[in-house]
Amino acid sequence: MASPFPIPLNALRAIAVVARGGSLSAAAKELGVTPGAVSQHIRRAEARLGVLLFERTTAGLVPTPDLQRIQPMLDAGFRMLADAIVALAAERAGILTVTAGSAFAARWLVPRLARFTGAHPEIELRFVATAATIDLAASDVDCAIRMGRGGWTGVLAEKLVPQTVFPVCSPALAQRLKRPADLGSVPVIRDEGSLISWAEWFAAAGIASPPRLSGPSYTDPIPALEAALAGQGVFMAWQLVAADALADGRLVRPFPVAAPTEIAYWFVTTEAKARQRKVQLFRAWLEAELTSKRARPVSGVWG
């Protein structure tokens, strides 16, 4: 039976690296071989395939149209190999690396993680708090809890819970708010990076002529929420981020209306990492926490 790989894996790797950068010396450095060895890999592959893979120019090696056509498949194949190796090593190490946004992590996830580690002491947690979208296939991160509308490519994404938004404030400040128009007479705290606006909440509340809002603004939702906890204004909060502060009475909802959004929290991982026991255990635990009393969605209409 003919081999499905007439070109050695090392040669394919050399072709992929040179195609990405066009330099034999840079490719040789990345691969840990000599430029001559890289050049020999390419020449032998071209001879075996009977196809010219690179144009030799004064600026370096330029992929031919034939190579450009298969280059995405080559890159995807090596990403899958790297993903498999990372997944195998991480599974044996018993380390689960999770990433999520800092606000969700600080206000909802981290306070609950002790229950996961208590139930699974054999799994060591490593947490990466960032709003950046980490490439799960090219990193050691096992899974992510992402906030957004979905649609990410190259991953498995499962919607966990849709999010509503509503105003929150300290109990003392709430005494000054009898109707939505009163928002014009108190400080309104703004999160400059928020995915939603006050206009959406006013629309959900049926307020045709909203009051003019003013107050401090923050580039991060964590200090914005801290300002609301300190009684410094009214903040438009996502339900999970405000859940614990509402449950223990540090924050209250001055109005019962909650505006629906297209935003949700998603559990995201790769196909290979989804098979790992530690990822499956974390996913099951997360679902159980999200369906507990404190995480139930809020709803209501202004009347």
Automatic annotation (TrEMBL):
Annotated membrane-spanning segments are none
- A Pfam family recorded for this sequence: HTH_1
Q: Which residues form the HTH lysR-type domain?
A: 7-64
Q: What GO molecular-function term can you cite, just one?
A: sequence-specific DNA binding
Keywords of this entry: DNA-binding, Transcription, Transcription regulation
Signal peptide positions (record): none
Q: Name one GO biological process term.
A: DNA-templated transcription
Tell me which domain of life the UniProt entry assigns to the organism this sequence originates from: Bacteria
Q: Which family does it belong to?
A: Belongs to the LysR transcriptional regulatory family.
Q: What is this protein called?
A: HTH lysR-type domain-containing protein
Q: Which organism is it from?
A: Inquilinus limosus
Organism placement in taxonomy: Bacteria, Pseudomonadati, Pseudomonadota, Alphaproteobacteria, Rhodospirillales
